[in-house]
Amino acid sequence: MKRFLGFIKKEFYHIFRDKRSLFILFGMPIAQILLFGFAITNEINNVDIAILDHAKDARTIEIINKISASKYFSIQAYIESEADIEKAFQQGKIKAVLNFEKDFSQQLIKAQSATIQVLTDATDPNMANTISNYVNSILNNYQQELNKDVKIAGQVMLQQRMVYNPELKGVFMFVPGVMTIVLMLVSAMMTSISITREKELGTMEILLVSPLKPLQVIIGKVVPYIFLSIINAVVIIVLSIFIFKMPVQGSLFLLGLESVLFIITSLALGILISTISATQQTAMMVSLMGLMLPTILLSGFIFPIASMPLPLQVISHIIPAKWFIILLKGIMLKGVGITFLWKETLILFGMALFFIGVSVRKYKIRLE
Amino acid sequence: MEDQSVIEVEGLTKSFGDFTAVNAISFGVKKGEIFGFLGANGAGKTTAIKMLIGISVPSAGKATVAGFDVSTQAESIKKNIGYMSQRFALYDDLTVKENITFFGGIYGLSRTRIKEKTAQLVEELNLHDVVNELVGALPLGWKQKISFSVALLHDPKIVFLDEPTGGVDPITRRQFWEMIYKTANNGTTLFVTTHYMDEAEYCDRVSIMVNGRIEALGTPKSLKAQFDTDSMNDVFLKLARG
Predict the structure, then answer these.
(1) CB neighbours of A117 closer than 8 A, spacing ≥ 6?
(2) pLDDT of A144-181, one tens digit each?
(3) Selection from A266, A265, A264, A233 nearest residue A332 by Cα
(4) Which residues of B touch A212 (CB under 8 A)?
(5) Using CA atoms, how far apart are residues A314 and A34, in angstroms rounded to an integer?
(6) Residues from chain B contacting residue A201 (CB–CB below 8 Å)
(7) Distance CA A176, CA B232 (A)
(8) ∠ CA(A86), CA(A92), CA(A97), 5° rounding?
């Protein structure tokens, strides 16, 4: 046991004396969560728009006031002719132009309908879509106010209610994803690099010739990263609760347990990578390409799995991150317990066992 | 006591598929001897050493090191031998003292024993100024000496040195051999691989491996007589060219 503690102490020296790994360990998680939380978001805020109002009557002014009062849009310019629309877009600042038709109020009364053209800059299609939706909903709102007193027969009313994330906050989607990526990165990449580093330096050979058993060496290398990963998980959860007001509806204890399970799965993957790579660089490339990319693309973090083609959906099943994200969302947002999550937990547990088994086996074969 | 064998090898063989890296080699090494294990790159030296230090299982044959069987008692062997690789593997980001403490620790030395050993090494190798420096900042010659001393920390019966003088200058090499002699005088057996033929002359006995077999074995003097030349270099060239 004393030998083992000495080993772990040595491992912490390595980590704390290497600025690069310190940065990856502690800078990265915080930077990522803040970046994803603040900068990269699907919501819109203060989008610059321009108004082309051919009518300039009471109704259009009411609508324009309503739009400028919302926090989503900020009116940057009033333009006078169709010819100026192109110019406004080309300058690049204006993302949308609202074009009110001539005699807007009269049309509304006489023809029962008046037209507002919404032109959006679709060089960013997602943004254009969102802008268009937001304008639509402001106008719908206005229309409902207009028709307050009028009874229309047989109208279908759509009543929307978003459950679990009523404000549609993007950060609620990113937190589980970022947590998954960071834990994967720290656990798998950092361990595989630290093990291959010993191989590269020749110290692994010395360790294997020593009375330490191979399994002790591996566990000694891995234990510090279990600690650090747990600290990271806590940091991410604390940041998301206090800065982004992310709820944890379910049990914190269960959240912790599932995180440890995922950390162990990732560590086993890290050991596996270290057995197949001879250099630190290979280990890093394999971790990035083999683990990070699938984790980001196929875990359902950014792209919904249900809309992927069938082969990709099948592949997504073997990605541990997919199950962990389901677990995280379930516990944090839906507040469900193990009775609903036992299947995902069991799958993750199976994966952990499988990868540990394979990596220990591989490691032993390498020793031959 | 003088003639006690500490390494006995009988028909030791290692094959990887169709390729036989080590082909039925046999030899013995006596206590306190400096045994030179020579051979060109790829002759099978490293594979043979790996079997002797217990990290590779022989395909056939038998070998005992410090009285323990390499196939079945590798763990006991590991406690009784020291090993220094050609890369002088120490941790660059640990200080000299931390390296000594770490390696002493994994060999199960007590804290007080490690302290004693550290003080002794600092004195012997004159490490006063560098003991708290990171190893990565030290010149290769220093690393080599420290690496050797670390391999001796647990007072092993046998020390395996795998090309211990690669890449260092002749003066440092000379000093290093003085350390080797001193160690041998204390009764420790040294098993040294090298491809510097002048170093072969320093050994008590040498074996020369060619293509997985031991083609020559004896004192440098007897080998030179056998091959009718006055330098080990010529002995080696004659053997290697077949």
Answers:
(1) A98, A99, A101
(2) 887 776 666 666 767 777 787 777 677 787 888 888 98
(3) A233
(4) 106
(5) 32
(6) 87, 89, 91-92
(7) 68
(8) 50
By DSSP bridging, strand B213-218 and strand B205-210 are: antiparallel
Q: Which two tokens stand for residue A14?
A: 């390595």
| Cα radius of gyration rounded to whole Å, chain B | 18
A314 bridge partner residues = none
CB of B106 within 8 Å of a chain A CB? The answer is yes
Is the ipTM above a cut-off of 0.90?
no
Structure tokens at A341: 């999550």
Helices marked H in chain A: 2-17, 19-22, 28-34, 58-69, 82-91, 104-110, 125-146, 171-184, 191-201, 203-209, 214-242, 252-276, 280-286, 293-298, 310-316, 320-329, 338-367
User: Which strands form B60-65's sheet, in the order they lie side by side?
Assistant: B19-30, B5-16, B60-65, B68-69
Element at A96 (helix H, strand E): strand A96-100
Tell me which amino acid residue A150 is.
Answer: V
So what's the pLDDT on residue B1? 44
Residues A105/A111, Cβ–Cβ less than 8 Å: no
- Cβ contacts of A11 on chain B, cutoff 8 Å: none
Q: Checking phi first, is residue A165 left (phi over 0); if not, alpha (psi -120 to 50) or beta?
A: beta
The answer to whether A110 faces chain B, any CB pair under 8 Å, is: no
B102 touches chain A (CB under 8 A): yes
Q: How far, in Å, CA of A291 to CA of A184, rounded?
A: 8
Coil, strand, or helix at residue B5? strand
- Across A330-345, average pLDDT: 91
B1 vs A173: which has the higher pLDDT:
A173
* Cα(A313)–Cα(A289) distance, integer angstroms: 19
Q: Residue A14's closest CA among A230, A188, A175, A223?
A: A223
Quote the CA–CA distance of B101 and A241 in Å, as a whole number: 43
Give the chain B residue nearest A210 (alpha carbons).
B78
Measured CA distances, A238 to A187, A250, A258, A336 (Å): 20, 15, 17, 20
**Backbone region of residue A345 per phi and psi (left: phi > 0; alpha: psi in -120 to 50; beta: other values):** alpha
A213 interaction partners in chain B (CB closer than 8 Å): 75
Angle of CA points A113, A119, A125, to nearest 5°: 125
Do strands B158-162 and B19-30 pair parallel, antiparallel, or not at all (unpaired)?
A: unpaired
Locate A137 and state its tokens.
């909903």
Task: Phi first, then psi: give them for residue B63, nearest 5 degrees.
Answer: -150, 140
**Is the separation of the CB atoms in A183 and A263 below 8 Å?**
yes
Under 8 Å between Cβ of A10 and B104:
no
Q: Is A150 on the interface with B (CB under 8 A)?
A: no
Reading the block at residue B181, the tokens are 């002699």
Which tokens in the block code for residue B33?
A: 């001897």
Residue count (chain B): 242
Q: What percent of chain B has pLDDT over 70?
A: 98
Residue at A19: amino acid letter: K
